[in-house]
Amino acid sequence: MLGFYRKQYEKLCDKEKLVLFIDGIDELTQTGWKILDMLPRKEEIPEGVYLILTCRSEEPDIPPFILDFINKFSFTDHVIFDPKKENHDFMVSILNQATGRSRVESQQIAGLFDNRLSAIPLLLNAPQEITSRILEMIQIGNAPIGSVQIGSTQTGNE
Asked: I want to staple 28 with a disulfide (CB 3.0 to 4.6 A). Which of 32, 88, 135, 144 is the partner?
């Protein structure tokens, strides 16, 4: 069946490869996991067809029937990502390039914000004195997460 769809895709889009993503297999319910039984074995997958399955890597969060599938299925590659490390590295890289701060300073700021990528736009739009104050607070050891407020409020003339 996948070979048929790859050929149709090639005809319509002039592409020789078909990629099928099944995201979040760890979130399948016991009735929904039957979709995994429909997946062809590695040797049955036609040339030019690629299956990519995603799953959380924290084993306690993976239901036993999904973990059993993962351990039995004959994958060609099995890649485990560490999202905390990847978020940290990505955030440090952005802060380092966009702000001109040192790598150490960018790491400290990223750590303060628990490597939350949602903080990047706030940090990049914050006045320089705010990020300097954040670094001062880190160096003093007085910057618990949530204590830093980024942005400004205008109160009008007094």
From this structure: 32
Give the single-character DSSP code of 22.
E
Residue 156 — left, alpha, or beta (φ > 0 → left; ψ -120 to 50 → alpha)?
A: left
Joined tokens for residue 69: 């599938």
Rounded Cα distance between 67 and 9, Å, is 32
pTM over 0.70: no
Residue (of 70, 65, 60, 57) closest to 31 by Cα position: 65
> Tens digits of per-residue pLDDT, 37-74?
888 888 888 888 888 888 766 656 677 777 787 777 77
Surface-to-core class of residue 103, CB atoms within 10 Å of its CB (0-12 exposed, 13-18 middle, 19+ buried): exposed
- Cβ 90 vs Cβ 113: under 8 Å: no
